Amino acid sequence: MTAHWRNPVGTLLGVFVVGVAVLVALLLIRTYTLAETKRVWLDKGALEAELTQEEREQLLEALKGAIRIPTVSFSETEQNNTALAEFGQYIRKAFPLVFSSSLIQHEVVGGYSHLFTVRGSDNNLQPYMLLAHFDVVPATPEGWEVPPFSGEEHNGFIYGRGTIDDKNCVIGILQALEFLLKRGYKPRRSFYIGFGHDEEISGNYGAMKIVETLQSRGIRLSYLLDEGFAVLDGVIHGTRRPVALIGTTEKGQITLNLSVEKPPGHSSMPPRQTSIGILSEAMSRLEKNPMPNMFGNGPESSTFEDLAGEFVFPLNIVMANLWLFSPIVSRIMEQTPSGNAFVRTTTALSIFNAGIKSNVIPPIARAIVNFRLHPAHTVEEVLNIVRNTIMDEQVVLSVVKAFDPLPVSPYDEENFGYQTLKRTIHHVYSAAPVAPGVCVGNTDSRHFVNLTDSIYRFSPIVMKPEDLSRIHGLNERISKEGLEAIVQFYYQLIQNSDSEKVPGPHHIPEEL
Ligand SMILES: *[C@@H]1O[C@H](CO)[C@@H](O)[C@H](O)[C@H]1NC(C)=O
Ligand SMILES: *[C@@H]1O[C@H](CO)[C@@H](O)[C@H](O)[C@H]1NC(C)=O
Ligand SMILES: *[C@@H]1O[C@H](CO)[C@@H](O)[C@H](O)[C@H]1NC(C)=O
Ligand SMILES: [Zn+2]
Questions:
Q1: Digit-coded pLDDT (tens) for 1-50
Q2: Positions marked catalytic
Q3: Same domain, 217 and 88
Q4: Alpha-carbon separation of residue 141 from 72, 146, 356 (angstroms)
Q5: Domain extent for 460
Q6: Does some domain include residue 33?
Q7: What is the mean pLDDT of residues 449-470?
Q8: Is residue 28 a part of any domain in this protein?
Q9: What is the pLDDT of residues 207-259, one digit of tens each?
Q10: Same domain for 69 and 142?
Q11: More exposed terminus of the chain, fewer Cβ within 10 Å: N or C?
Q12: Alpha carbons 85 and 92: distance in angstroms, whole number
């Protein structure tokens, strides 16, 4: 004791060294146990589609033909209805077995959307559902290597609007089913396929009518798969190989209308502040005071923990120990727009209107702000923060549209949908690690929350960093191998979904 008193610095140093050693041990233990508890599906999975040369060409042509039909959603209220109808005729011709099979019932829903019911042999198994959409955002030829609706091939890629969002999935699902039927496949578990025609403008007439139809029949789904994340190759900084993210939730949204009304007047005798000044100040306060960083309060931390073992040293230790490092990680993430979207509710000032004439004090100024809600926020909470930030009674707020973040779908080791997806991803994408993720955009799947708690958002495509800007951007494209992998994925997934429950690690699936 006394010796220690005499040398307090030495004691402190000793305590510090022991402390650091314990901490390092804890960090390492967590790093390696986290990496080990994740299941890797080693089973061979279901039968692969051994495509003939002729079938490969058929698949290519099927996608190219789909791209050439300009199923554009121009605005909230305007779509190319001729093209939407033509698309329906097109798939009937391109996939004759799907449309003639006695196992399959086809319906047109909401004017142009499609619903297929594929009858399985075992009524005790709860059906699942595959969802995709065939409307696309507009594209003009400027800046494209080939015209966006030509469906032309260039350097081994098929270019065109819809090649990754989302006609690739529509054609992939139909082609996989067509090939399965051709090989005599009969499903055990029933399933539904839904193709929405207005996803890019909210899905109010497509997906929502499909939901109404299923609900009126009392249907519950074991799981639902829609577009969303992908196999990310080099997209997540510091990962050593491609990793697959499955979206288990989506951010919520608020579109908020702000307006300021003041008596009009002449610009020769302006008031101290006009409607423009008042509204600009409010807007500026919103931008200068971002919503709180909420990293670690939502499922986004599972993304990093599940992938911890995939990061290069020392990021692997950091990610496995977010209990300690999340303040640092969250600060680093908020530096980029995409990382920032992950850690907080984002605030985007998107429309600003005021003024009519240079010598008139404008009577009204209006603006629209779009918020995307972090999974741990609610619409009510965000609106409260907005009111407290603006703190000005002259600014009138009205909500144009709002919905809470989507419920988080389960992703535990026993969950049938998640594990079936994981198993299929492991098979098709060289055992790529799989983790849950938060989608920052919205999909048609959000309309299905009353039909199942297991909604997953994953497109079976590989995305590299340079591909991200192609979504809704220039030179959207898919490689020929990428397209075949999509078909393989759905071909496997449909067969894997015939299992009764999550099979054990050494399960050998039945032959067809
Ligand atoms: C709408 O689609 C049809 C083909 O279905 C096409 O001929 C027409 O040019 C398209 N209209 C517009 C405005 O893109
Ligand atoms: C926003 O509010 C103003 C004033 O109340 C109204 O005139 C305008 O139509 C609103 N805009 C939207 C998109 O709701
Ligand atoms: C789900 O059901 C609730 C309660 O009936 C309803 O209020 C809600 O609008 C439904 N959600 C969707 C997306 O259909
Ligand atoms: Zn899409």
A1: 444 445 666 676 777 777 777 777 777 777 777 665 566 666 666 778 89
A2: 135, 199
A3: yes
A4: 14, 7, 34
A5: 53-247+406-502
A6: no
A7: 96
A8: no
A9: 999 999 999 999 999 999 999 999 999 998 889 999 999 999 999 999 999 99
A10: yes
A11: N
A12: 11
Considering the domain boundaries, does residue 6 fall inside one? no
Residue 274 lies in a domain: yes
Residue 332, classed as helix, strand or coil, is helix
Report which of 491, 510, 500, 487 is spatially closest to residue 43, judged by C-alpha positions.
Answer: 510
With a 6 A CB cut-off, is 366 part of the ligand 2 pocket?
yes
pLDDT (0 to 100) of residue 205: 96
Which residues belong to the annotated binding site? 133, 165, 200, 227, 472
Q: Does one domain contain both 180 and 271?
A: no
- Ligand 1, atom 11: nearest CA belongs to which residue? 80
Q: Are 356 and 265 in contact (CB under 8 A)?
A: no
CATH of the domain at 171: 3.40.630.10
Give the number of domains in the chain.
2
pLDDT at 36: 59
* Closest residue by Cα to residue 314 from 300, 303, 324: 324
Say what the pLDDT of residue 512 is.
Answer: 41
| Helices first, then strands: H and E counts in the chain | 15, 19
Residues framing ligand 1 (Cβ under 6 A): 69-70, 72, 80, 82-83, 86
CA-nearest residue, atom 3 of ligand 1: 83
Residue where one domain finishes, among candidates 384, 403, 422: 403
Final residue in a domain of this structure, among 371, 403, 435: 403
